[in-house]
Amino acid sequence: MPIAKLDPQWLERLCRVEFKVDEIVFPNPDVHQNEIPQDEEWCEVVVGDGRRRIRFHDYDEIYRIPGLYEELFYERLKCCSPSMIAHLLEEVLNDFDDNVQQLRVLDLGAGNGMVGDELYARHAQRIVGIDVLPEAREATYRDRPEVYDDYMVVDLTDLPRDDEKALRNVRFNCLTSVAALGFGDVPPKAFLRALTLIQNPSWVAFTIKDDFFRERETTGFSRLIRTLSREEILQIQAYRRFRHRLSITGTPLYYIAMVARKLEDIPPELLEANWQAED
Prior knowledge:
CATH class of the largest domain: Alpha Beta
Mean pLDDT: 89
Radius of gyration: 18 Å
């Protein structure tokens, strides 16, 4: 199974982020003998004289502590999704005689800027981040202030008109979303709205947990991507299963990395459909 190798220069950039955690303690596997679901994983963090439990999906708490996200997911749990999607996108672009330097990227679920950092290092023309958490933007501007040309805290399922106009004026030709789809972080409707904000044709590069791409999954993303492909709105160019990271017990967590070409507008009926439920 492919495991993306972290670029040494990217590792060097990670090391520049200030780390203010004294200790990270994972659950004792002898006590928690069953695998903890990915969206319920947690650790205990010691900062100064304080010790507290933080659930991995409580991103706002993680972002507030400088360096915790990087140390937890990239150093301890060997996450490689930003590197994987950046390399895969670059491979596909080369096949089409295109290059990253021409991309105007909308980074959906941008978090604290890990994917933006990869694209910035490859000299993307413009990068705009979107996330629903103000803590994500604050962490990005604290640790990677040079990466994004703009970073907006907005909910794409309820996008203010002025924000939509500003985004459309950028004339994006690439959408990225890494480790944000599923688990309720970025719902299908938000992903669809993001697709409406990029031009035709445009590149779309994203990762999603492999369980969420099975025929009977319930998040709606499997049906959504298959529908977009069947209707020739998205033309899939690359599909790769890879090890996203390790779980807290050391079990590999596998994701799908996908690069597609958006060729057509999103029909209104798809935007209005209920993707959360199975037919």
